[in-house]
Structures are given as C-alpha cells and as structure tokens.
Amino acid sequence: MQRTEMTDVIRLEVGEPDFNTPDYILEAVKADLDDGRYTHYTPVAGYPDLRRALAVAIHDDTGLTVDPEGEVVVTVGGASALYTAIMAVVDPGDEVLVPDPGYPQYTQQVLLAGGTPVFYGLREANGFQPDLAELRSLITARSKMLILNSPHNPTGGTISNETQASIAALAQERDLLVLADDVYHALMYDGAYRSIAALPGMFERTVTINSFSKTYAMTGWRLGYAFGPQPIIWEMVKLQSFILSCPTSVSQRAALAALTQSRATEEMVAEYRRRRDWLVAALNDLPGFRCHRPAGAFYVFPNISAFGLSSEEFCARLLQATHVTSVPGSAFGPTGEGHLRMSYATSMESLQTAVERIRAALPGLVSG
Ligand code: PLP
Fold first, then answer.
1. Which residue owns the Cα nearest ligand 1 atom 12?
2. Does the bond joining 154 to the residue before it have cis omega, within 30 degrees of 0?
3. Is the CB of 183 under 6 A from ligand 1?
4. Which tens digits make up the pLDDT trace of 91-100?
5. Which atom of ligand 1 is nearest to the CA of 211?
C-alpha cells in the first residue's frame, strides 16, 4: 500500500486530555527539582505524605476512611495499578469477568496472569449498563473477580446507582472480588460519582484503581494509585517492588501538588460537557449516525451499523476521505462492532471541522 502524508489530520482517536498539566503543578515540580532532593528512590508504596494526601482525597471522593499506611499504594499510572491488582489476585485457571467493549489492557493482563477473561456485554440498547441477568449467568465456580469501569472507556457510559447496588449484592452473594477502574471518576457530566467500594460490605472485596492522568491532565507523568483491603494492597506493593522498585519521585511530587494546592477540575469538566453536548447533537444530525449521550469520560461511541461496513473498514475509509481518525468499536471487543470511538478531548474548533468533513464525505463513503 502506498504511504501518503496527511498534514491536516484531526485526531479523535486519542485517549488523553488535550489540556496540558496545570501551571501550579509545573511550578511546584520546578521548585522541587531546584531543591535537588527528589532524585532518589522513593518508598515502594509511594511517599508517605502523598499517601496521606490520597487518603484525604479518597475520603472526599468516596466517604471512605482508608489507612494511608496499608490500604493505599501509589502506582505508575492506573495501568500498573491494574496490572499489580490482577497479578495479585488472579491465579492460573481463574475466570475474570471483563467488560465488552472495554479497555483492552484488562484482557491482556488477565491472560498474563494465566487467568481466563469472560466477557460480559455493554450494549447500546441497555444504555451501556451491565446486564445483571447476563452477569449472573456467566459466574461459575472458577469466577474470581469482576472488572467494572465507570465512567467507561470506550462508551462514556456510567453505571447507575441501582445497577451498582445490584452488582454489589451479586458480588457478595457469589463471593467475587471487584476491580473498580475509576480513572475517569472526576469526569462526570450527569449525576455524581459513587464508589462501589463505599457500599456496605464492599470495601473488603474491592480494589479501586485511580489515576492522575485524566483528572489532572497528567498522562505523561505516569502516576496512579489503588486503594482497597490491606492484604491485597500489600501483595500489590510486593509486586511493585519486584517489577518497578518504586513510582517516580518527581511525578509523586507533582501529584502531591495537584492534591494539596488546588484539586479544582470544574473548568475542565465544564469544557468537556460543552463539547459533549455539541458533538452528540452534531453526530445525531449526520445521516446514518446514531449517538447515545454519554454521562462521563471524554468519549462518544456512535452507532454506524447503518452503513453496512465493519467498524474497521468504516474507520479506514473515514480516515482516507476526511483525514479524521477514530477507533473501530471492534478494537474494544466484539460487542463494540458497529460503533466508533471518538474522543472529544480536542478543541471545539477541531470537532466542528471534523463533523463538517464527515458530513461532506458521507455520500461517497459507502460506495467509494
Ligand atoms: N483504565 C482506563 C479505562 C483507561 O482508559 C486508561 C487509560 O486510557 C487507564 C485505565 C490507564 O490510565 P493511566 O495508566 O494513564 O493512568
């Protein structure tokens, strides 16, 4: 295939904030670098002052009181928190319930641990909520853990309080651990974040994964954290020591500044909400597109099945015809087929140009 340079690409496939890390965080880290002290290994579980600040933030976000000494671990992004949690819990032969569509790392990490991913569907017809009857039917004697992700990548869906309560009851009835991937918890536009770990009887069976990446536009700093019952967190800390030694010193200082100096995310959330409202309406106005209204994260997951093409083929043709990138829904699991993931973590102007280009190209897209 001939390679062509595209100089005017609009990238809606990217899964990270278009904002840079806020200045107050950068200023704090500059001072730390001048200080010169933060160039050494850190404690394996992260700096104690950061863990204490996390315990305060976790209490504010969830109402839970966690022990910064034993129930919190600082990690290298949400990604390493996921990995050490899965490695700590999953033994060869264990089954793990994984959302489909879902963040691809879940499946790969479960496989790396020797476990078996068992997919549960998140469907548009059901508002991308987990289906309780389906979940129940998939649980076997080998089921060890259920992975939840709300707000959700790639659909932007959030789990309702009612569904969350039913899942909590099911986890207790069938003795499942829950891995709650809440990395988008700060990006909710309708309704408020509620942690499943804070429901009665759930803390002792839930590991919550979180991150500074999306909340504070800090993807490149690679800083995340997990909290949960002490025996599992302790196993995660041990794994972290063998895999990574410790999280990065200056990134922890950046995280501490984020938590102690501002924690303000309202402006960013308001801007994402404005873009979501505009993009959902604009996509629904395109012939052949049907777009639900996601309540969180920064993704839309429009249904493009009316075009009769696989999502991969549709994405490829869209790229050629419009120079707009998106991710085929099938990249997130078979139930994602018939959809595209588009991120609105890009400027309003880019979104508007992208939609204009798509509208102009649509008539030729299927035949061409
Ligand atoms: N979980 C979900 C659902 C994600 O979408 C991502 C990143 O895109 C992560 C976890 C990992 O985030 P990070 O490692 O950047 O903190």
1. 78
2. yes
3. yes
4. 999 999 999 9
5. 16
